[in-house]
Predict the structure.
Amino acid sequence: MNIVTNLKEWKTIRQSLNSKTIGFIPTMGNLHDGHLSLCEKSKADNEITVVSIFVNPTQFNQKKDFANYPRTVDLDCKKLDVDFVLLPEKNEIYFDNYEIQLTETNLSLDLEGQFRPVHFTGMLTIVLKLLNLIHANRAYFGEKDYQQLLLVKKMVEALFIPTEIIGCETIRAEDGLALSSRNSLLNKNQREKAKLFPQLLNSNLSAHDITEQLISLGFKVDYIVEKWQRRLGAVWLDDVRLIDNFRLC
Ligand code: AMP
């Protein structure tokens, strides 16, 4: 497995791969089986798989959240079995001082956008930069971040980017909690309680009743809504935010 930190080096490598099909998985690291399932899908579909690990500062609303985001690059590289891992430096990615940004003006204002105002502009900008650097045939995104997946698909269509965006199902812990890098920030009690979030979100109760029950259990609820043929939710357990969604039958 080749670990590449320098973008000039990556560009030279990329030229040498021109005849191969390439699958790409952008991540922020602290890898778990959810990320690894995207890698497996890419490996099955493509000759070469590239994973990027970059904790993108521009998509965090709060400095504290960015500072606390779990960073485990060495362990991540041990877990990965792909062809290339790209670990770009912030200064190389944002050599423009983030003076060029990509903003979507409709879907990005909904749901997550109401609670994390700068998030989607930061996310779309970094994904666009990475897609332009990797020139992949396919890029893999989790359905767990459903609004993100919709926005990335919309961006690729709107900007005529020749990478196919593939949505992959959410991988869960045995008790149903969607795997997430932020789960490692939960203490034992919080982790025990967290499993009730997907259980309620995927129940036959109405969105209103789910909200009431979550509040009575001690969750702070940002939203529980039904749209895009999904039921989506975002909640807090103290200062850890969890999001999830299920397809409506
Ligand atoms: P992140 O490192 O959180 O930015 O996630 C990188 C990619 O992995 C995104 O496309 C996520 O949607 C996806 N992902 C995160 N958690 C899961 C999961 N539990 N199952 C499947 N995909 C996931």
In short: Residues 2-168 form a domain with the Rossmann fold fold (CATH 3.40.50.620). The two ends are 41 Å apart (CA to CA). The pocket of adenosine monophosphate is lined by residues 27-28, 34-35, 37-38, 141-142, 144-145, 168, 170-171, 178-181 (CB under 6 Å). The mean pLDDT is 97.
